[in-house]
Specification:
By secondary structure, the protein is of the alpha/beta class. Helices cover 25% and strands 16% of the residues. Strands 6, 7, 8, 11, 12, 13 and 14 form a seven-stranded mixed sheet that branches. Strands 4-10-9 form a three-stranded parallel sheet, with no helix packed on it. Strands 1-5 form a two-stranded parallel ribbon. Strand 6, helix 1 and strand 7 form a beta-alpha-beta unit. Helix 4 packs parallel to helix 5. The longest helix is centred in the middle third of the chain and has 19 residues. It is globular and about 45 Å long.
């Protein structure tokens, strides 16, 4: 949802929104009303988020009122002049073997948000995509909805997956996509506790039919947009063909896929 990145450091917390949940057998929520953009002064609240976590109109960063700690921003867009967009996938992309071939052949920068109970059995296959551009990031241990859980429960989901990914891949992941795109202020505190530096939503989404939909703003891609590619339920068939179609659209608009992790 690196894809060259230029993510800002703001002073207050981004206007929060809801996100994507394509691949774990859960229904995707309605498109969020207004995600926060990293470094972008536009933004808004979303019905799937706890508005009490909201802040400064979408600057993308915030402070922990109790400890002076900076909380991670919630972003669906990265402010950058680079003509890049960022392709993000949740659990399920691994079900289409041709997709792995596409990543390898094109050295395609993609961000894969992983849930341990869903993709744990194929961690080895996913690890082999890392040299070709795939970034493996956090989608929690069990794909539980985080909003409303106590801080300890949210920490268990987020930190637990941080530990799993570090032990399997030897890297410290920094990005979190909350299951179902829902979160609250407690999520931000728990994410900060676990070393997460950004919650990643999306401004554009590629639907199973191949069309792009948008959560806010003009209905076309802009530099810095985070794109959620929803695998077809339940088998993720046609994921490769839809990704190739998306890449053609990106190129026609004078854009290219970037590495999100480099910008956040």
């Amino acid at each position: 949802m690196r894809r060259g990145r230029s993510r800002p450091a703001g002073t207050a917390l981004a206007a929060l929104t809801a996100l994507l949940l394509p691949l774990t057998g859960c229904d995707r929520p309605a498109a969020p009303a207004g995600h926060a953009a990293a470094g972008d002064p536009a933004g808004g609240g979303d019905r799937d988020t706890d508005r009490s976590a909201g802040g400064d109109g979408g600057r993308g960063a915030g402070g922990d009122s109790g400890r002076g700690r900076t909380l991670p921003p919630v972003v669906d867009h990265v402010r950058t002049t680079d003509r890049v967009v960022f392709l993000t996938y949740d659990d399920g992309a691994e079900r289409d073997p041709a997709f792995a071939d596409l990543v390898r052949e094109r050295h395609l920068p993609v961000t894969l948000f992983l849930t341990d109970t869903v993709t744990g059995p194929v961690y080895g296959d996913l690890a082999r995509l890392r040299p070709f551009g795939a970034s493996l990031q956090n989608h929690t241990l069990d794909h539980r909805s985080l909003r409303g859980l106590p801080r300890a429960g949210q920490r268990a989901e987020i930190c637990g997956q941080q530990t799993k990914l570090r032990s399997r891949f030897g890297v410290r992941t920094r990005l979190l996509r909350p299951p179902h795109g829902t979160y609250d202020t407690t999520t931000l505190h728990a994410a900060a506790d676990c070393g997460v530096t950004a919650l990643v939503l999306w401004r554009a989404a590629l639907a199973p039919g191949g069309d792009l939909t948008y959560t806010r703003g003009a209905h076309r891609l802009h530099p810095g947009d985070i794109v959620a590619v929803d695998p077809d339920h339940p088998s993720a068939t046609n994921l490769t063909a839809r990704t190739e179609r998306l890449l053609r659209t990106i190129e026609e608009q004078g854009l290219r896929a970037g590495t999100l992790e480099n910008y956040l």
